[in-house]
From TrEMBL, chain A:
The keyword Membrane applies. The chain crosses the membrane at residues 9-30, 101-122, 131-155, 175-193, 233-255, 275-298. It comes from the Bacteria. CDD domains: TM_PBP2. This is ABC transporter permease. Gene3D superfamilies: MetI-like. It holds the Pfam family BPD_transp_1. Belongs to the binding-protein-dependent transport system permease family. PANTHER family: DIPEPTIDE TRANSPORT SYSTEM PERMEASE PROTEIN DPPB-RELATED, DIPEPTIDE-TRANSPORT INTEGRAL MEMBRANE PROTEIN ABC TRANSPORTER DPPB-RELATED. Residues 95-294 form the ABC transmembrane type-1 domain. The lineage of its organism: Bacteria, Bacillati, Actinomycetota, Actinomycetes, Kineosporiales. It is found in: Cell membrane. Its main location: membrane. It comes from Kineosporia mesophila. Coiled coil: none annotated.
Automatic annotation (TrEMBL), chain B:
This is ABC transporter substrate-binding protein. It comes from Kineosporia mesophila. SUPFAM superfamilies: Periplasmic binding protein-like II (SSF53850). Residues 85-470 form the Solute-binding protein family domain. Residues 1-24 form the signal peptide.
């Protein structure tokens, strides 16, 4: 297992190099003057352009620029945003908020998604099953910002049950509604995935044998059905954690959450390519680590899976 | 300056906000109960500053609003009339409008106790004017004596060679007379100088800035009625009333918290829920059927601001060069009344000239007959012109309503003139500006102007003088330049007459077509009283009162 982890960690290096190079190239390949949005309705002054060009090494060919970028990154220098923060500082502030939001969203997915999924599978064809199949279809077909606006207006503005936007520091209570909105789409998928997977396992030979042996139904469900059915669900949620940590631009915008999504959105809007590249690099790194963690979790769920 | 205060954001949230605001008419309980509390804390909508909070380096609203709240320059603008009033200055006088004598009020201090003296102005202005500091507001000092020496030109225009490092670090036009007096020598006469120095770029700076600019940019030490006490650009800044402020406009509240929002619809939801006290511009969706007025009865304002939208015809393109007929035809073919009503829901008013109605010297109808929709006459002019299309109108699609406006303009032209006209989308403001700055346009494009200081000159010289920084269409007219120069040297009514005469010349060529003037629609909570919106489009923090 140790060797496996080391091998996976080493594999991250080429992946990271490849993705950062692609992101770097794409960010700077966007047509238009990277400074034009900074100076408004007039060309930027020569001095400003010269200073920025030198700071970002824009006068050098792209591979050389990329080498500078990698070199700085290796030293832990991710650059500075236009308003004078280091990118690392900005990320340090935004990332915990995104992590909190992700935790809330994933909790919804785990508890509601898996819970209702199991319930629906056990009551297959019942009213409950039909009801949740229908609501999950609704959640899948609506874009998240519509759900966000509607819930924000009804539950926040009208009924005052939840705070309308998230305050600074993102207290947990404020994150319940945005977390639910963010989870709504995946929640629906997790629910359906759990249900389908469970139904399949319920038909399996080993389950029939266990029941025939006279094991209590609860134990059969817990030990032989649910545990075996969760692998595809876990794969899905693992991928979702990575995606959620990358920031949720729309939901963060609706509820004014100052997370990674907002940071990236702002940087893209004012063409702050250096920040975009650095933040995405950090996000890529996080996603790779989460993926590794999920793979390791498989072995815990299914003893047949071993890593060496 | 930029469309900077127009803010090119958030179009993606508009559709959702529409659904949201469509059913919210009874959210206002409408009681103004309670008496004003001098310990009250209010919250205001804000966007993330794009630059460090340094006056010479801030040219957009996110940072500008904070700086304007905490700083006081030589003059301040009256919130109602936009007229400049002495603030830090005791007097600003000149006999020839070229050399100005500035006397400061005695005993004014910064919030760290250091004096606001002649040096704090001279040093701040020199820092901004010094080319290698790459300050975004550098060009405001272009009219000062000694500016060229501090900003040498690039010898080969974007070539491999860099501009040489300037030998001088100080404007030769700035001379200290005593601690409370200094003189400013301009390269040419400018009678509007006292109005100009109220702009953000002209605030003074304490020694603390020069000791550590980086720390200063995060938490500026200013000289106005409020000081920055906490916060950052990501979540917002907290401003607290400063007890040491000696001006007459003392704040009537304790604290103003600028909350950073990434979307205006989130801010508007907060206003509706009573979590936000002031929002300077409601989202476009709230303008539909004047929804914001039903949402916040008696707690809104719809006020003209110093912003004008125009369509520029690039004079360097062979399509438009030396041909006034085509501009007249296009201008006559645009139905401004209908478009401002249908696309902007009355948030804009049809323009009748190139100067915003809010400044002194504005004269309605400078554009004459050419700004009135008249398809028949439009066809006559098109028949006389060399270029008969196809036309296109380029716009940046990241601004709210830009797409709809562009399409409406083209449809209007199409229907009136029976020619082809396409709305041409640029993905964002930066991409459009890159092509405009590089003189690559060959058809109509969207342009706009937010005034820097409330003066008629600011709507004319920076935009249409030969070679001016924001003369996007490269229009040039010797008589115009001469009239502006003459007006700059004159004063009062006499100068206005010359500015107006210069403006009238624009209608002869119609190289830039006036479209509409902008208004601002602000809303606020029941807690606020005596709400005034300043010429800088912000809440006047020193006159507002609030209940606890």
């Amino acid at each position: 297992m140790g060797r496996y982890v080391v091998r996976r960690l080493l594999m991250m290096i080429p992946v990271l190099l490849g993705t950062t190079f692609l992101i770097y190239t794409m960010a700077w390949a966007i047509p238009g003057d990277p400074f034009a949005s900074r100076c408004g309705q007039r060309p930027c002054s020569d001095a400003f352009v010269a200073a920025e060009t030198e700071r970002l090494h824009l006068d050098k060919p792209l591979p050389v620029q990329y080498a500078y970028f990698l070199g700085n990154m290796a030293k832990g220098d991710f650059g500075t945003t236009s308003n004078g923060q280091t990118v690392l500082e900005a990320t340090e502030k935004a990332f915990p908020i995104t992590v909190k939001l992700t935790v809330v969203a994933i909790t919804f997915e785990l508890v509601l998604g898996i819970g209702i999924g199991i319930l629906a599978a056990l009551r297959r064809g019942g009213y409950l099953d039909g009801f949740f199949l229908f609501t999950s279809l609704v959640a899948i077909s609506f874009p998240s910002f519509v759900i966000g606006f509607v819930l924000q207006y009804l539950l926040g503005v009208k009924l005052g049950l939840f705070s309308v936007t998230v305050g600074s520091g993102a207290p947990w209570g404020d994150l319940i509604l945005p977390g639910f909105v963010l989870a709504s789409l995946s929640l629906a998928y997790v629910l359906r995935l759990t249900r389908a997977s469970l139904l399949e396992t319920l038909q399996a030979d080993h389950v029939r044998t266990a029941i025939a042996k006279g094991l209590p139904r609860g134990m059969v469900l817990r030990k032989h059905v649910v545990r075996n059915s969760l692998i595809p669900v876990l794969t899905y949620i693992g991928a979702d954690v990575g995606a959620l940590l990358g920031g949720a631009i729309v939901t963060e915008g609706v509820f004014n959450i100052q997370g990674i999504g907002g940071l990236l959105y702002h940087a893209m809007r004012i063409r702050e390519n250096a920040t975009v590249v650095s933040v995405t690099t950090l996000v890529v790194l996080i996603i790779l680590l989460v993926n590794l963690l999920v793979d390791l979790l498989y072995a815990r769920l299914d003893p047949r899976i071993r890593y060496e | 300056m930029k469309q900077r205060r127009l803010i090119a954001a958030g179009a993606m949230f508009a559709a959702g906000a529409m659904a949201l605001t469509a059913c919210s008419s009874d959210s206002d309980s409408g009681s103004d109960g309670g008496s004003a509390d001098s310990n009250a804390s209010i919250t205001l909508y804000s966007t993330k500053p794009e630059n460090p909070l340094i006056p010479g380096n801030t040219n957009e609203v996110g940072g500008g609003n904070i700086l304007d709240a905490v700083f006081r320059g030589l003059v301040d603008y009256d919130p109602d009339t936009a007229a400049p009033e002495m603030s830090m200055a005791e007097s600003i006088e000149s006999s020839d409008n070229k050399t100005w004598d500035v006397k400061l009020k005695a005993d004014q201090t910064f919030q760290d106790g250091t004096p606001v003296d002649a040096d704090s102005f001279i040093n701040a202005w020199n820092w901004t004017a010094y080319g290698p500091n790459a300050a975004l507001n550098n060009y405001f000092f272009a009219s000062f004596d000694g500016y060229e020496a501090m900003n040498p030109a690039d010898p080969d225009e974007d070539g491999p060679k860099k501009a040489p490092t300037p030998k001088v670090k100080e404007l030769s036009g700035l001379k200290k007379v005593s601690d409370t007096e200094f003189t400013v020598k301009l390269a040419s006469a400018q009678s509007f100088f006292p109005t100009m120095v109220g702009y953000t770029a002209f605030y003074p700076l304490p020694q603390a800035f020069f000791d550590d600019p980086e720390a200063y940019g995060k938490k500026p030490i200013a000289n106005g009625p409020f000081q920055v006490t906490a916060g950052d650009g990501d979540s917002g800044f907290t401003l607290t009333a400063w007890s040491g402020y000696k001006g007459e406009d003392k704040p009537k509240i304790k604290e103003a918290i600028y909350k950073t929002y990434t979307s205006d619809s989130a801010g508007y939801s907060d206003v509706l829920a009573g979590n936000l006290d002031f929002m300077n511009q409601v989202p476009a969706a709230a303008l539909v059927d004047n929804q914001y007025q039903t949402d916040r009865p008696d707690h809104f304002v719809n006020k003209a601001v110093g912003v004008i939208q125009t369509a520029t015809l690039p004079q360097y393109s062979k399509n438009f060069k030396d041909d006034p007929n085509v501009g007249k035809a296009l201008s006559l073919a645009i139905d401004r009344d209908t478009i401002t009503k249908s696309v902007f829901n009355g948030g804009r008013t049809p323009a009748t000239g190139w100067v915003s109605p809010i400044v002194d010297g504005y004269k309605a109808g400078a554009c004459g007959e050419f700004c009135t929709y008249d398809p028949a006459k439009a066809k006559e002019y098109l028949a006389k012109s060399n270029f008969k299309g196809p036309f296109s109108f380029s716009y940046n699609s990241d601004g709210q309503g830009n797409k709809e406006a562009a399409e409406a303009i083209c449809n209007s032209i199409k229907n009136a003139l029976d020619v082809e006209c396409n709305a041409k989308s640029y993905v964002d403001f930066a991409t459009l500006r890159a092509d405009v700055n590089a003189s690559k346009m060959d058809n109509m494009f969207r342009s706009g102007w937010q005034m820097d200081y409330p003066h008629i000159q600011n709507f004319l010289e920076p935009l249409y003088a030969t070679g001016a920084g924001s003369n996007d269409g490269h229009w040039s007219n010797k008589n115009f330049d001469a009239l502006i120069k003459k007006a700059n040297a004159a004063e009062g009514e006499e100068s206005y007459a010359d500015y107006q005469a210069a403006e009238a010349l624009l209608s002869e060529d119609m190289a830039v077509i006036p479209l509409w003037y902008q208004a601002q629609q602000s809303v606020w909570s029941e807690r606020l009283g005596n709400v005034k919106v300043t010429p800088k489009s912000t809440l006047d923090l020193t006159s507002v009162t609030a209940t606890s």
